[in-house]
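Give me structure tokens for this 283-residue protein.
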Amino acid sequence: MDVTYEGTKREIATDKGVLRYHEAGDGPPLLLLHGSGIGVSGWRNFRGNLGVFAEHFHCYVLEFPGFGISDPVEGHPVMTAGSAVTRFMDALGIESAPMIGNSMGGVVGANLAMRHPERVSKLITIGGVGPNIFSQNPSEGTRLLQAFADDPGRDKLVRWLESMVYDRATLTDELIDQRWEMAKDPASHKTLAAMYGSKAFEAGQKAMAKSGMPPYWAMMGNIKCPTMLAWGRDDRQCPPDMAMIPMRLIPNAELHIFPNCGHWVMIEAKEAFERIALEFLQR
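Here you go.
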């Protein structure tokens, strides 16, 4: 099976621009949704896992608009990502599918499961969902993202990447170089600034308070599909106390915490995560 970058990359036109993605495997569909952050992409999040999941599923690694790969659209990145998933599924004729979402991708999947439950058959989130209870908010990782968004620099990228992992050896020179090149893309940085820039972050907090609407995580009792919450015990971007509310509110949720692991569970706890995720998806 070809699971190389060139061998799996695809694109499809929609009424709001071109969506690019990676595709591999046969069987029932499985969507993999990437996180946010500096120089992120779906391929970088899930390239190491694609071959394993593609042995059992027809996998689609979607690149969200605004991160320098799919065509950008106007709007908040989390909301445009959610609409991109439904556009993507409609374009390919996928009525319903299980979804694996890393961090922001988990939030996107959770929102879809609440608002369009018929589209999400199972949900796996990797960090990201829920509120900080005991840990500081913004977290250490988010503060480092804000510092980069306000004034980009390679040294700030490295400091943020170090907060993402338990083992510093995970951060190869190649990975840092790739992230830095993508981070210099204007569309990618515009999205990062819209999510994490200090002014945008403060404006978003005020707008949420003014709206009177409950935060998305307060409504997670509406997620009816089986849900697996995966967390690194040493996550400094989304500390594991965030899992407490979704674990309690989502009726059919189970929580798996991986030791000696930071925010990138699918990378640092690769084999254990894949084994547990496959058991959950095939259950």
